[in-house]
Every structure is written in structure tokens, then in C-alpha cells.
Amino acid sequence: MVFTQLRQPISFPFGNVPRRLQKRRVHRYENSALSDYCLEAIENQTGFYMTSCKAGVKKGDRICISDADGASEYQVNEIDFYCDPADMWIAKLSAI
To answer: Second label for 42, Cα 20 to 30 Å away, from 7, 22, 77, 95?
Structure first.
């Protein structure tokens, strides 16, 4: 009697969830005189640069900025973190 041993990797149903199916976090900012962020339009391109110290923001997350005129929503396309202070970051956003 001959036994064949198949070695196939075990796949876990939750380990390889595509990025598009993962829940995106929405980070909310209030537009006020004492704001904790800076939003600038990118010259000669579409999109914005945002600098802030709010923790937990990652690539793919969304940012909602509210002011007296309403709310605007953006998606984080790229993000880089500063070394000092460690919680400060700059991100490239696109309007949604």
C-alpha cells in the first residue's frame, strides 16, 4: 500500500482579506481657529497634503473635515510619519 502525502499550505479565512474588503476608519476633524491639522492644496495636481498629530491614521483611511459650510471627505493615499515628534504625520489625500 502506498500513501501519498500532500503538503498544501493551510489557508486561514481571515488572514488574507483583501484591502478593499477591510473596514476603513474615518477620522473626524472640526475646522476651527484652534485646529490640530493643516490642509494644503497640491500645486499643479489634484489632491491635498495634510499634516496632523492625530494618532491611528493609516493609508486607505478616510478623513472628514467639518466646518460651518458642511463637511468634506478625503481618502489617505500616502502617509509618512515624522521622527520628532513621533505622532506627527503628513499625508497625501484625494477628495471623495
So the answer is: 22
Q: From 22, 23, 53, select the one nearest 37 (Cα to Cα).
A: 53
Give the dihedral sign, CA 51/56/59/62.
negative
Amino acid (1-letter code) at residue 36 = D
Strand partners for 39: 50
Which residue, among 58, 59, 64, 61, has the nearest Cα to 37 in the 3D structure?
64
- pLDDT values of the chain reduced to their tens digit, one per residue, 96 residues: 444 454 555 454 555 555 555 567 999 998 766 678 999 999 988 899 999 998 899 999 999 999 888 999 999 999 999 988 888 999 999 999
